[in-house]
Amino acid sequence: MEPSLPAVIDAPSPHALAAMILTVAVFIAFARGRMSTEIVSLLTIAIIAVGLYFYPLPDTNPTDGLALAFGGFGHYALITICALMTMGRGLVVTGALEPAARALERIWKVSLQLGLFVSLLLAFGLSMIVNDTPVLVLLLPIFVALAQRGAMPASKTLIPLNAAVLIGGMATTIGTSTNLLVVGIARDLGMPQMSVFHYTPIVLLAAIVAFPYLWLVMPRLLPDNSTAGQQARRRFLTHLRVTPASELVGRHFDEIVDRLPDEFRFEERPPSRFEVGQRLLISGTHEGLQLALRELRGQVAPGWVLDRIDSDARKSGEDVQVLEMVVTADSRIIGRTLASSGIADRYGVAVLGIHKPERLMHNEPAARGDEIRLAEGDVLLVIGNRGALDEFATTDSLLQLEGGQDVPRRSKAVIAAAIMFGAVALASVGLPFFGRQGFYLLTVPIAISALLGAILMFVTGCVKFDRVGRALSAKVIVLVAASIAIGRIILDSGAAEWLGETLAMGLQFLPPAGVLAAIMLFVTLLTNFASNATAATVGTPIAFNIANQLGLPQEPLILAVLFGCNLCYATPIAYQTNMLIMAEGNYAFRDYLRTGVPLVVLMVTTLSVLLAMTYGM
Question: Do 611 and 562 form a contact (C-beta atoms < 8 A)?
Answer without folding.
Answer: no
